[in-house]
Amino acid sequence: MNIALFEDEKYRYFQPLTYTRPVYELRLGLYSxxxxxxxxxxxxxxxxxxxxxxxxxxxxxxxxKLSFEAVNPKHELDDxxxxxxxxxxxxxxxxxxxxxxxxxxxxxxxKGKTLIVAKFKKIEEEKLELLINQxxxxxxxxxxxxxxxxxxxxxxxxxxxxxxxxxxxxLKQDIEESSFKKLEEPSCxxxxxxxxxxxxxxxxxxxxxxxxxxxxxxxxxxxxxxxxKAFSVIKGPTYIGKYxxxxxxxxxxxxxxxxxxxxIGGEVVNxxxxxFANKVHEGFVGRSYIGNWVNLGAxxxxxxxxxxxxxxxxxxxxxRVDTGLRKLGSFIGDMAKTAIGTKIYxxxxxxxxxxxxxxxxTDVPSFTIYAKTLGAKPVExxxxxxxxxxxxxxxxxxxxxxxxxxxxIKRLFLLTESERSKFGVKKSVFRx
Length: 432
What we know:
Structural class: alpha/beta
Largest sheet: 9 strands, mixed
CATH superfamily of the largest domain: Hexapeptide repeat proteins
Distance between the termini: 59 Å
Number of domains: 2
Number of helices: 9
Oligomer: single chain
Shape: globular
């Protein structure tokens, strides 16, 4: 049986985060949604995503040394188990799927009207285009199902804020189930609140003197070659990724989920942060989702609570939706940057490669320089400037920008042109 992941039409709800990655590469707890499927089904042979992501995503999989057959295969496929990339796979649901596989050659599992799993003996070439284009409605019409099941209890991520809402619980569970070694008597002079058995570490971890480790509300996992500098406070559940640095006097509070090669200072709480992001200086980032290669300037603050204590509302695919949450921060796309002292209101989305100044009270489109409170009109970032800046940032971390990555930036610049036009972004020189 060949496992295949696919995206459905709802990937748009997760933009700008999904402009640069398939929806199943979004993180929840220690793992991406893809990794949660692999945990129970092994290697994923085929991966379907938007065609413009294909080459960069293949490079990503190869760099991770992951075994796969193809991204967006174009040839006829046999004996396929399709899994929706928004599904949060669990052991119980994986066992249920395996039970259905053993009993039926073809079947489909829905959650309401959402197709979450389908097993087929064969998918013809012309039907694969529907998967590549996220046209799942037509897939449902085009492919026959001998048996149909509905499981409302299946957990899917339907909205971006659910990643933040559930992150704390999944982080706690994932760390407790991980195979990392427990920290024995620490060599540093540190203060411990809670159980030392709940502090897990990888190889070559550096813990400087006078740090606080607090596991009373959940475990702490510090991955390989990460560094926690003096006078920092780490509260669980928290994950600190490989090669990341927690600078002096930093407060890393519960639910913090830090990716690899990040630099963190100031205060963070219940934040999901992908790799190579910088938040080195003072400032607060709470209940937010941060993409790759984001740089948050000194004293950047993301508000996560309205003055009214009311629930936060977000704009999703042209529709205003009540999140039902009183506390929710920002969703910041890859390569975005904030200037010193930037303040971002609750529930705002910041596009890919956007540049922010002053106070931000609205969603900001990709490739936009926004400085309304400083008296400037929104203007478009020069594409060449984005590429040069990103190349420099990658070089500073010992990474060479590939041709495919550069082409992705150019493609996204064109793809997001309409959102800039709708927002009133001008093609002009930025001046304060």
